[in-house]
Amino acid sequence: METTEKSIEVLNDLIEINNDRVAGFAHAVHELKENDGDLKVLFLQLREESRENVHELSTAINKNGGEAELDMSGDGALHRMWLDVKEAFTGHDRMGILAECERGEDAIKKAYESALSPDNELPPQIIEMLLRQQQDIIASHNQIKALRDSEA
After folding, report:
1. Which of 11, 32, 83, 84 lies at a CB distance of 3.0 to 4.6 Å from 36, suitable for a disulfide?
2. How many whole angstroms separate alpha carbon 74 and alpha carbon 83?
3. Which of 9, 11, 7 lies closest to 121, judged by CA?
4. pLDDT in tens, 103-119
5. How many CB atoms lie under 10 A from the CB of residue 72?
6. Is the dihedral of CA 141, 69, 85, 31 positive or negative?
7. Element holding 11 (H helix, E strand)
8. 133 with 112: CB under 8 angstroms?
9. What is the DSSP letter of 73?
């Protein structure tokens, strides 16, 4: 597969899981109780982070002559993880919601690790963008994990 085509495929996969993450955090916000305002602010911020990631990934695809696929994921098990997380919220308390969000963050971290594999032969400017996004996602994961741990 040509390097440009592979890059576009990798970026579209990341768009899908970022869109799943947007939907997951939107659902999490909906499931929060009134006294969970701190989590609502955090989840809305992380939802916006993924929206920005999607915009940046789409722009990179367009610059490389491709077409961004802006839907949520379909078949991939990794991508479905965020949707499974979204389904698991009903009836959960604060700690349960945080644990499910951490699981979703694990999935997106794994997706970025996979995307950054040397086998993908991504151009340096795309690697730089993905590394920056990955750092934000790792920081978000760690923040959610710390909140979950503090609930235990």
Report:
1. 32
2. 10
3. 7
4. 889 999 999 999 999 99
5. 19
6. positive
7. helix 3-31
8. yes
9. P
